[in-house]
Design brief:
heterodimer, A: about 80 residues, mainly alpha, about 0% strand, B: about 450 residues, alpha/beta, eleven-stranded mixed sheet, two-stranded antiparallel ribbon, 16 helices, 13 strands, about 15% strand, globular
């Protein structure tokens, strides 16, 4: 069964959160979109990735239950839904 | 005191009463920009003939004849904005136009005397990166003025003008207000003029806002941007909530001391109360704001556009605007859920308190050539440290005001931030004025060395 949340399920040893993965993500992502980058830009992107990716993973793993995002929220006002 | 050194409201009142000649004030302002601006690079362009035309046509509005600066984030009828960058990474490049802030200022009778510098692409809290070169802090020209509204803040602090218009998408009015010892209002989302901004139709975080010496001037300039009067009250019985979290705890000792002293003074002045409150998942809220603001800036951005990006855009921004293309859609969706969760939590909190208080900045302005700050948790970039205290208001739409509350050991300004419920812009300014009364207006009347000498001579 494929579980996209588990590295082991796609052939990587569980817990293999290596720097190589981060190093691969940026150039692979850029290549898939056809975006060019020089060495300095790549260095910036690696730094951004190392800063953003761990909290992004934390964010994705937050259990928000059945909470749905407001649709077209009116940000000038309090949310219409009952406060938590 | 010379008209140049008066408050914005005193300038406007003096002109309305016939006690100040608006044409003389305009010429004196332009001369002062020529004199002082080279040291701080706050104003990147003046247009004396256009300013004189604005004055000649100025209606009898609340700001008639008052000189102001506008951030390089909106077009003017004679000038396209550059957004502090050699190129805007957007499908359509800006052109000269009547922007919302321009119309608001014109209709109030104000005279735009210059365009304020800004951090390139609005992407930083320091103001040390710009196509125009770094803006400098009038309190110490080797220090960051804050960003991204660096020029409006530096221009106002150096008394080139008494008020300026900035923009705040992740603290960009509040950080430079704090670093430069000014009062800066981030209005409730949607209340202030935004038309003409390249993201006006798509952003859910960015607002225009005033930067002035004190809250009363912010009320006057903010009223022009709102298109309606921001009424004055007294903030009596203000219920202040404080969060014991990294935002308020992981700060330089001098910041913590100044903010705690200010909170006690504000409580006493308003006859109010201070309550410890909990606001969970602030780190997630900060990330959610970052993700949403970056995703919203991607409309129409293509790989081809990014591959052709002007090499004069700084390497950091060239790299980061490309990295934004890799942000996962699931994270953006989750960020929007976190926004809803946070808004609901705030709605509940604002039943219990009127304002949430914490330091605007965790440390005073860092050096221009090395914008790092020392915190109890260690050394951080100023951007990393600053955004934690600012993103909440942008993510949720609530208003916030930064108020000067002291000078640190290095003689640099420190600031307290107050955040209120949706639409509570007036109450926040009332609270800021109460704090000014409580400390004898000591910090809003403090002047940086660059502005101090001439004021003393006058």
């Amino acid at each position: 069964m494929h579980d996209p949340g588990q590295p082991g399920s796609v052939g990587l040893p569980a817990g293999m959160e290596t720097a190589d993965q981060a190093q691969d993500f940026v150039p692979a992502g850029l290549a898939s979109l056809g975006i060019e980058a020089d060495e300095i830009e790549l260095a910036v992107m690696h730094a951004a990735h190392s800063m953003f990716w761990p909290p992004i993973r934390d964010l994705l793993s937050m259990d928000l239950g059945g909470l749905q995002a407001e649709r077209d929220p009116d940000l000038s006002r309090a949310p219409e839904e009952e406060a938590e | 005191m010379r008209a140049l050194d008066l408050s914005l409201r005193a300038q406007a009142a003096g002109i309305a009463a016939g006690e100040i000649d608006a044409a003389e004030l305009l010429e004196a302002t332009l001369a002062r920009i020529d004199e002082r601006n080279p040291a701080i690079n706050a104003v990147v362009e003046t247009f004396p003939e256009r300013s004189r035309e604005m004055l000649a046509a100025a209606p009898a509005g609340p700001l008639r004849g008052a000189p102001v600066v506008v951030k390089d984030e909106w077009p003017l009828p004679w000038r396209a904005q550059k957004f502090g960058s050699a190129q805007l990474p957007a499908p359509v490049q800006p052109v000269p136009a009547e922007s919302g802030p321009y119309r608001a200022l014109r209709d109030a009778g104000a005279v735009i005397v210059g365009v304020g510098n800004m951090h390139e692409l609005g992407s930083g809290s320091t103001g040390n990166v710009s196509v125009y070169g770094a803006a400098r802090n009038p309190w110490d020209v080797e220090r960051c003025p804050g960003g991204s509204s660096s020029g409006p803040a530096a221009a106002t602090a150096a008394r080139l003008v008494a008020g300026a218009v900035g923009a705040d998408g992740l603290g960009s009015v509040r950080f430079p207000a704090a670093y430069c010892g000014l009062t800066g209002l981030k209005p409730t989302f949607g209340r202030s003029a935004m038309a003409g901004h390249h993201m006006a139709a798509t952003t859910s975080l960015i607002v225009s806002g005033p930067l002035c010496a004190d809250a009363a001037d912010c009320r006057l300039l903010g009223s022009a941007l709102f298109g309606e009067s921001i009424p004055a009250g007294d903030a009596a019985g203000l219920r202040i909530g404080v969060v014991r979290d990294a935002v308020s705890e992981d700060v330089a000792p001098e910041v913590r001391a100044a903010c705690e002293e200010a909170l006690e003074a504000l409580r006493a002045e308003t006859g109010g109360s201070v309550h410890e409150i909990e606001l969970a998942d602030l780190e997630a809220a900060t990330l959610a704001a970052l993700l949403i603001v970056n995703a919203e800036g991607l409309g129409g951005v293509t790989p081809e556009l990014l591959n052709g990006l002007d090499p004069a855009v700084s390497p950091v921004n060239r790299g980061f605007v490309k990295y934004r293309m890799l942000l996962p859609a699931a994270a953006i969706a989750q960020a929007k859920r976190v926004r809803t969760l946070t808004r609901r939590r705030l709605a509940a909190l604002f039943e219990e308190v009127d304002a949430i208080a914490w330091p605007t900045i965790p440390a005073a302005a860092p050096p221009l050539d090395s914008p790092l700050v020392e915190l109890p948790s260690g050394t951080r970039t100023a951007d990393q440290a600053n955004v934690r205290g600012a993103a909440l208001a942008n993510l949720t739409g609530i208003p916030a005001v930064s108020v000067p509350v002291g000078l640190g050991e290095g003689g640099l300004p420190l600031a307290l931030q107050l955040q209120g419920a949706w639409g509570a812009d007036a109450l926040l300014l009332d609270a800021a004025e109460a704090l000014e009364r409580a400390n004898g207006r000591r910090w809003v009347e403090a002047r940086p060395p660059l502005a101090r000498a001439e004021a003393a001579e006058a």
